[in-house]
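User: For documentation purposes, I need each entry recorded in a consistent format: the amino acid sequence on its own, followed directly by the corresponding structure tokens. There are two entries in this batch. Please keep commentary to a minimum and don't merge the entries.

Assistant: Recorded as requested. Entry 1:
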Amino acid sequence: MFASMSRLYSNSDKPYLDYRTAEKCFITAFDAADYTRSCVAIDAKVGTIGVGIKTFVDTPFQKIAEFDEKSHVLNGDPEHDARAIAVLRNERMELARDAYGITDFIYHYILRTKGQMSIHEEPMLFIDIDRIRIIKARKQNFDFTDGHCTYRFSRSKSTLYKKFDWSDPLAFIGVAILDDIIDQLEATFGVINMEEPIPEIAESVILPLFSTRGGRHVPERSGLNQWNAKGRPRDPNEVYIPLPVSIKKKHEDFFPERKVHFSLVLPDGQSLDASVCQDNGKAIMSNPNSDLGRWILRTVLKLEPRELVTIDKLDDLGIDAVVFTKYEDHYKIDFTYIGDGRDEEDDGL
């Protein structure tokens, strides 16, 4: 249905299907959990299966990961760099596996060719680092394989591509592209009543897990490293999520008042008791405090007790902020990545 409206966007005989539309169709059809706005290796979850959703025309190499902040781990040698990128990619898949309760990964993708689309699925595999072999090296990119899949890394874009195999489609769908789509839309919907109320949507706020004072870093004695603060003895899982004053003021009704407890649902479905705490309500903690720390520090970041959280560790995993989404009777927390695009004086979303 969406592809038949291709003339809204393109004059090509190959159907147009926006990747956001493909994601929405999949999530709706399979009643899947939606992680399309999360900075993780999956777009959706069906049961315990993590799904990467893609749509593209017949170009085999497609983007699967970006590593904008990690150019310093590369030295220009293709074999070294292929292994370094493979480690980072695998760590991001491990994060999705452990934090989101995933037992298996697949790609689900739509290939668009002249007059039709085909549906494909294939495993999303960890890269076998011990079997990496360089196929071809160029100045701006290089191809490598691990014996299971073929990859291409673009140095200029810091982007990893994978070669997808569309030799065994699950199904074909013929697409009749409508040339009179504007007329049909007008006939179907008529004139839009601009006075109709806009439906309420869930509000979200982004909270950075780092500080920018003195350079972008994770403070050693606060936030995710609160367990390392001076003074009283502290549990090694003691953390809090910083709530900047500017965000709190702009969204003063988003979080409950200080010490008012609320249900916080994690990406894997687990629910924690949480509240706004500390002087001036500058922190979000769980009750007991160690529950949130145990999940972030041990399950997600895989740190040893009393090992500091660093900005390099967050960049490796492609996460440096959390998104709180407010619902009628609970909040949800998820990860995102903002890099240098936001500082402590910004106002969230």
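Entry 2:
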Amino acid sequence: MKEQKKSISFIINPISGTHDKQAILNMLEEKMDAEKFTWEVIATEYAGHAAEIAAEKAKQGVEVVVAIGGDGTVNEVARSLVHTQTALAIIPSGSGNGLARHLHIPLEPKKAIEVLNESKLQTIDYGLLDQTPFFCTCGVGFDAFVSLKFAKAGRRGVLTYLEQTLTESLNYQPETYEIETEDGTQRHKAFLIACGNASQYGNNAYIAPHATLTDGLLDITILEPFTVLDVPSLAFQLFNKTIDHNSRIKTFRCKKLRIHRQKEGVVHFDGEPMMAGTDIDVKVVRQGLQVIVPAQKEPATMFRKAQEYFNDIIQLNDRVVADIMEKNKSLLRHNKDLVKKLTGKE
């Protein structure tokens, strides 16, 4: 008897990320195993649409929903699939790709499709920031503040993010927080507090280098006030998985915590900003989401690390070029409008 084909829905955000979306869609026709799967492709039309589509597909009993986009698209899809029989898969095409990187899903679309063809399932934990699900990190302080500035900037991309980070870090003032866990209450003046379900923000920036997705614990990282002299070592250790060795860093693990601050403000979940009150509740939910992962984790060879590094450099270069071209186009449009006004020609 012939095995019934699995149903897959691809949800694609046409405006996010760095990859050519049409090229990815062409790869689906070429690389997906038509003997195993039937599939459809649905494009999102507005913020929050991916979550609506994924929820509907889970109700229909679709077996796998694939997020094609950045971390925001992945979060939208994933939060609609928690505690359902529908699994999440990812074809990463954002700038950060935090969850995909943690799960060792290849950043190359072709290889990510190969992972999907293998369809190995793993059940992972997720976090709740108040009642909002997150899968990599959430937090308060500077990283949340920058995520809000980034969202309001009107331009996406790594250059905008770096620009906001460098500009705001010069003026940002640390706050004093009370942190209550099952082990008691502690008080910290902190630049940021990050709660890690997974190990990184994205772009291989490991804010919680020892976090795992299956231990039922959150890895909490507190960055205390620092000087400009500390920046080089903090930056190096963030990308070298050793930030917990820094004297300005305090870490611990817990199942849940309450963060109290003096005033309301911004928090972030998987890099997305959200306003919250003075008391912020964070907890981990065990074994809540099925995900498609590689059948075999590739060994972290020097060659592969170098390849990933150069792939990141190439992607960064592409984004830099795109950003410069967009700025030049904007400048040309402005100059043309100015010439028309000066000459009186319309």
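Summary note for entry 2:
The longest strand covers residues 279-293.
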